[in-house]
C-alpha cells in the first residue's frame, strides 16, 4: 500500500448537521436537505438520498455520536449491490451547539459486517495527516483511543454494533429499513 504524501493528503473534512433546519453542510460547503432528521440525548440521526450517481449506494443513514467520537453510516445500496458493509464508522470529533452538530473527520474508519468482522481502514491517510500537521498530538491520540475503543467493543459483542452500543453505552440506534 502506498502512503499518501503530505501533498496528496487532504485537510480534515468538516460537516455541520442542523437538527432544527434538517440540513447538513458537507465538506465542500454545500447545504443538503435531509430526508429525515432527529436529535436525541445521545446524538443526531440523519437520512438522505443522493442526487448524483454513486457507485454502490443511493443514499445513507447516519448517526452522529459525540461522546464516542463516531459517525456511523448505514449505506442504502443500489439495487443488486450485496457486497456493501453493514456499517461504515468514521472516527471524528463531534461538538454540539444546541441542535447543531459540528463534525471533523480524523481519517480512521471502521467497516463492520455484523456478526462477522470489523476492519480498520485508511491508516495511511491518518499517518499522512499527522505528518502534514493536520492532526496535532492530542487529536491523533484521541482518534487512536476512539478507534481502539470501538473495535474492542465490537469484538467483545460479536461484531454487533447495536448490541455493543446498547449494552456498554445505553445507546439504541434506530434505522429505517434498507
TrEMBL record:
DUF402 domain span: 42-159
Segments of this protein annotated with the region Disordered: 1-29
UniProt xrefs under Pfam families: DUF402 (PF04167)
Name assigned to this protein: DUF402 domain-containing protein
Superkingdom of source: Bacteria
UniProt lineage: Bacteria, Bacillati, Actinomycetota, Actinomycetes, Glycomycetales
Amino acid at each position: 500500500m502506498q502512503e499518501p504524501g503530505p501533498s496528496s493528503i487532504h485537510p480534515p473534512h468538516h460537516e455541520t448537521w442542523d437538527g432544527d433546519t434538517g440540513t447538513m453542510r458537507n465538506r465542500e460547503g454545500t447545504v443538503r436537505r435531509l430526508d429525515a432528521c432527529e436529535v436525541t440525548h445521545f446524538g443526531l440521526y440523519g437520512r438522505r438520498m443522493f442526487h448524483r450517481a454513486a457507485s454502490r449506494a443511493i443514499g445513507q443513514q447516519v448517526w452522529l455520536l459525540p461522546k464516542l467520537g463516531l459517525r456511523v453510516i448505514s449505506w442504502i445500496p443500489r439495487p443488486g449491490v450485496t457486497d456493501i458493509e453493514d456499517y461504515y464508522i468514521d472516527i471524528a470529533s463531534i461538538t454540539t451547539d444546541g441542535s447543531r452538530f459540528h463534525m471533523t473527520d480524523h481519517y480512521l474508519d471502521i467497516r463492520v459486517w455484523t456478526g462477522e468482522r470489523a476492519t480498520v481502514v485508511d491508516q495511511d491517510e491518518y499517518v499522512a495527516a499527522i505528518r502534514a500537521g493536520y492532526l496535532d498530538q492530542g487529536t491523533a491520540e484521541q482518534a487512536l483511543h476512539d478507534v481502539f475503543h470501538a473495535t474492542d467493543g465490537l469484538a467483545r459483542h460479536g461484531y454487533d454494533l447495536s448490541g455493543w452500543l446498547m449494552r456498554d453505552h445505553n445507546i439504541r440506534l434506530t434505522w429505517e429499513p434498507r
